[in-house]
């Protein structure tokens, strides 16, 4: 079958032909005049609505094989045709200039322009530098915001092969106060003893994260704070667990555990203030254009 270089390909074209055509389009071998830029080619048309090659999202074909691209583009065109046919049918049934729909379209257009402009303005003008001191001050002044909804713990959890000759020494060390000196001694043994540190006391963890590594019969004891130290074996590894500190539901979260949240809140409040000031400035500057109806 020979294809002529035409302005468009009607939506009544069988899907099987679409598949072949798509492969040719993607390979750029369709015999169209060189004067017509490829991105201006009409791939499919429904009534007065046409889908141009340039309208195709680049992720449909970028970095993909010709076969995969053809499949995805074919699906995209079929979806576009279906959507356009439904739109035209709805427009016919409801009337092309339906007042209710037109009001909604106008409201959406106004909202879309406003939101897009404000988003771009924030992206360009928002100061995203948040100093540590500012975060600490905000945390101290707004502690009720950071009441815990789930318990947090600081723990040491490590594993060591059952056959390790350093097992006894590690077992002794993990029960000692986990100060810098003792943690350094454990760290110095890690390579030769085969130690893997799963959690260290420097960071806070949720019980949910910790429970993934614990036997089921130990979880209940942990939830009830009956455990300070624990030892268990799984698949040839011995696990040593040492609790350092607890934070219960309702306690104020430690600063380090909510630092990212604090920063996000500060930036969000800055954004709200920035947009409010922008809207006030535009409203004040534009009041000269306002004409009120006479009463």
Tags for this model:
295 residues, alpha+beta, 9 helices
Question: Can I get a quick summary?
Answer:
This protein is an alpha+beta fold and 295 residues long. It contains 9 helices and 7 strands; from the N terminus they run αββαααβααββααββα.
Give an account of the 3D structure:
- By secondary structure, the protein is α+β, with helices and mostly antiparallel strands.
- The protein is elongated.
- It has helices at 15-27, 66-94, 99-125, 132-141, 167-174, 180-193, 207-211, 216-223, 255-285; strands spanning 42-46, 49-52, 152-161, 196-199, 205-206, 229-234, 237-247.
- The strands form two sheets. Strands 3, 4, 5, 6 and 7 form a five-stranded antiparallel sheet that branches. It has a two-stranded antiparallel ribbon with strand order 1-2.
- A hairpin with a 2-residue loop joins strand 1 (42-46) and strand 2 (49-52).
- The chain is 49% helix and 14% strand.
- It starts with 14 loop residues before the first helix and ends in a 10-residue tail after the last helix.
- The longest helix is centred in the C-terminal third of the chain and has 31 residues, at 255-285.
- Helix 1 (15-27) packs across helix 2.
- The model is unreliable at 1-20 and 27-35 (pLDDT under 50).
């Amino acid at each position: 079958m020979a294809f002529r270089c035409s302005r468009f390909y009607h939506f009544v074209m069988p899907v099987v032909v679409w598949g072949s055509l798509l492969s040719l389009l993607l390979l750029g071998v369709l015999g169209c005049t060189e004067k017509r830029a490829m991105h201006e080619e009409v791939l499919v048309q429904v009534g007065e609505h046409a889908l141009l090659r340039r309208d195709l999202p680049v992720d449909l074909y970028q970095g993909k094989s010709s076969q995969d691209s053809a499949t995805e583009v074919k699906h995209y065109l079929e979806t576009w045709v279906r959507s356009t046919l439904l739109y035209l049918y709805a427009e016919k049934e409801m009337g092309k200039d339906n007042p209710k729909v037109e009001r909604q379209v106008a409201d959406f257009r106004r909202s879309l322009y406003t939101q897009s402009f404000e988003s771009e303005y924030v992206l360009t003008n928002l100061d995203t530098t948040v100093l540590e001191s500012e975060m600490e001050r905000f945390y101290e002044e707004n502690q009720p915001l950071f009441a815990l909804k789930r318990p947090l713990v600081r723990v040491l959890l490590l594993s060591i092969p059952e056959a390790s000759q350093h097992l006894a020494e590690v077992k002794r060390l993990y029960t000692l106060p986990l100060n810098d000196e003792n943690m350094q001694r454990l760290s110095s043994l890690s390579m030769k003893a085969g130690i893997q540190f799963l959690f260290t006391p420097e960071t806070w963890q949720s019980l949910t994260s910790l429970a993934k590594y614990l036997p089921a019969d130990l979880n209940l004891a942990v939830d009830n704070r009956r455990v300070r130290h624990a030892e268990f074996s799984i698949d040839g590894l011995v696990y040593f667990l040492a609790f350092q500190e607890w934070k219960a539901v309702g306690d104020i979260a430690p600063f380090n555990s909510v630092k990212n949240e604090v920063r996000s809140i500060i930036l969000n409040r800055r954004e709200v203030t920035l947009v409010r000031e922008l809207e006030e400035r535009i409203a004040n500057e534009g009041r000269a254009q306002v004409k009120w109806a006479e009463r």
